[in-house]
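Sequence decides. Our protein:
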Amino acid sequence: MWFQNPFAFRPGPVTFWTTAIYLAIIIPLIYVHESVPSAPTNRSQYRALNLSEAFLDLQNVTSAFHPYNSHDNDRVRDFYIHRVKEILDRNGMKYTTDQSGGVPWHDKRALASLSRNKPQSPRSVSDSDIVLFDDQISNATWASFREVVIPDGDNSWQYHKFRTGTYFEGNNFYVYIRGQDDPKGDWWHTSSYDFKGEGGVLVNCHIDSVSTGFGATDDGVGCVSLLQILSYFTSEGNQPKNGIVLLFNNAEEDGLLGAMAFGYSPLLPFLYTFVNLEGAGAGGRAILFRTTDLLAAKAYSNSLHPFGSIVADNAFSAGMIKSRTDFEIWHESYGQRGLDIAFYEPRARYHTNQDDTRHTSVDSIWHMLSAALATTKVLSESTGRAFHGQPSGRSPSKNLVNVPYNGKETPGVWFDLFGSAWVAFPLRGLFAWSLCLLVAAPMILFVVTYLLGYNDKYYFFTRDIKTHQDINDDTVILGGWKGFFRFPLALVFASGLTMGFILLLGKFNPLIVYGNSYSVFAMAISIFYFSFWLIMRGSSFVRPSALHRGYVIMWLFILGWAMQVVAAVMEDRMHFGFLYPLSFFQSAIFLALLISLLEQFALLGRHDFALQLHDAHLATDSAPSNARETEPPHTEEEAGDDTEEAADTPEETPTEVTPLRAGETGYGSNTTSFANTYRRRSAAENTPARPDLRTFQPFNHEQSWSGRLPSWTWIIQFLLLAPIPCILFGNLSLIAMSALNNTGTDGGKLGLPVLALGAMSIILLLPITPFIHRVTHHVPLFLLCVFVGTLIFNLASFPFSPNYRFKFYFQQKINIDDGSNKVIITGLEDYARQVISTLPVASNQQAECGPSVRRGLVDCEFDASALSPKLVEGKSFDELISLTILEKDASTGDVTIQINAVDSRVCYLNFLEPIQSFKVEGSASMDPRFNSRNDKPTSGFEQVWLWRRDRNQPWNVTIYAGNSASERKSNNQDTVIAETFGDGELKARAAVESVKTVPSEITVTCLWSDANIQGTIPALDDFLRYMPTWAAVTKRDVGLVEVQRSYKV
């Protein structure tokens, strides 16, 4: 049979084709997920790009940790400036340097004053197409919220959220590449700041790393890509159509601070679109993390190897992904349109010392560079045309001013296919598609069902039929309900068993998914396949039914329709398109069900079939007795029975008036006797009406009318159901696996990753369920062995390894007032204690653990007096921090203080009582663009953070306590902001008048983050020296070391 028809709906072909097609889908998906496209060997097409040079640049900048608060940060910044000039000189490009900055775009009154003092014509008319901006001016001040854990009685804790202010001095460096359609000269120095031209493109990276990571992919690859993009657009014949700004921003890792400082650039209104290059993993492919809208996603389509989907974008919007990138500043604070391209896995190396050049490659650089370059070219060519016009309405809470004239955003849906093709279409189109599936698809199926019924060929749900022949109203059993309830029973059983084992794994070893995601995936897939096959194959063996496949597809359609309702609501009300695979799957189910219905047009009408058999049995009854003595061999048709219906039909003692057809095999009855078997068989041999019935044999005891069904249509149904839905769901499963598998050590729910893998395994196997009852035992038994092996492995294995290390967070805190010196380790308690126990200094201590501000983790602390840090050569802790009172107003309680810290760029102040406001000498007014959402300054500030670019320049800070005179002093600034942003803000500030306290004590805490020289932070050195090979250390907060001291004022 296999050689006669390789596509027949028989066990051999079904087993082969379903297995082969699934493997043909899964293997390429895994290959694409685990590999990085090779860099081109023929560089003639990319003459301006030099990947070898890019990798050497990456080695240079990642030779040491370089957070903002480190000396190596200055070295890396100088290196990028040097390389920019070197590339421009090599390409023969003239350039000028501009040190503009500090433009108060958020403050309309200050901006108007600045405009009046500007010259009415360009300051200079330069022929240079390249301008280097070295911004040593811009600073920003804003309000936000932080959270701490405080004791609340015996063994109880509570989370306290308080308002904090931040003052930051930036030192961004960026390059302006003039476009062919850009204005000539230094147009940004004109008196008008209301830019309504064609606009340009911002391409951004950040030059700083975390204090415990070398920053190869976060964000060294992004920055060396910018150098190559500069080389490309400054080479002959490659001048962009619209201008491009390449931004090397600083201090992203400490709270997106560099992007906020760029909010004071004179070029800000010129920039309509952006490409943000980031790293949230360490190597691999660079994914399209998120975009602002459909048009930005389409700009990415020219990438050589597109990779990503809207799922990550929706996860950010829903708050499921807590990671922050500069994307939110460019879009939410500045109103620009663009996209985020980032490395996203393996997360285990993210922010650790394995984020280095050893664990990345030239291929990874090429993947990000090629995507960024292609997207930037498209945006430069289309920004003045496609991204132009009245902007979309913005949320009033964001207080956006000078929103770029970049048109309205259109929600969209986008995804890649095998990392080679890119699909993007409007979200409204997906919603319209969903409505068609919800309304039009059932209507079409209803029409086809009606036509089948009209032609007397609808066998679904047909239990029996009456012949209406002669004086007898004989009943013929058709068995049309047989197989209807199998799918829901099998689905509940198999899904319950699968999720049961997943929950077992989640209880005893949930972190196995950390480095062994594929073994969890294999376990879930194998047990669901085997258990579902067992039920369906067993029921088909006991009670064969030709309608089995059709009923399963019918149940899939009902299930898919219900899910499509959810998808449509999300698409319309929430603007989420992450359920787009459901539309593809439901469309495939609809077509497959339509085929199952159309198949029945090949059958005899139900009454015609019954009458044929009626005539055949009449001939059998009148056949000569000697013809009945010779019994022919059994045929498949004659052996067919319908045991389901027979079970519901009471047995009767045959009499001379008993209908001949109601009890015969082929009509669904299992009642047999010598008489009816004898009549049936002799009629099959001697009656001329039987040859037509004997030509179409049913399969394996199925209903005898089913012999006319085509045996090849199943392969079309399977090709509809499996490939495209499995490609889409499979790709999402792999991305979700990589994105979620390390979230447990970050404080996420431990069981969520394994539950997600279990659910995705079930979804991936749904397309095979209509055909699985025809699969031979070989594949299921093999998968049963796989399940047993992976279950034992997943339950017994240690979850971490040198390649997938347990990540914990380190910080050392020193309190000068009480002399305490503690190291705090944040992580999962059991593993954190194991790591601490490996340190000699902590071997005789019992670490104290309690709740952490990182929800889901604990803070474990131990005494580290024996490992005091040597932060500044020759300086004791007492000499590191100083506070001087410069001025104090006894009537108001206002005080001006000077804060300084030796060799540190960061300090923060804590107040016993909240203060009304503060102002740092030389700072701009409070910038609402960066305030936390729903910020209402009714409770004052409990904390103020201070950042500086020059370590030798102290902060002069005026603290307003909130009494009458100080209210008058700060009225001007508040009035400006109220006038700029409306009465609502004015009312909010009026509420601050209730905060009238004199700050009696100020606690100054300063931070040090430079761990490049061994011995500077001995406690960190000991962790690196003694901790297990399966552990990795990363920073707990901005500073690796905090030194704290209190002052009475």
Observations:
- The longest strand covers residues 139-151.
- The CA atoms of residues 579 and 896 lie 56 Å apart.
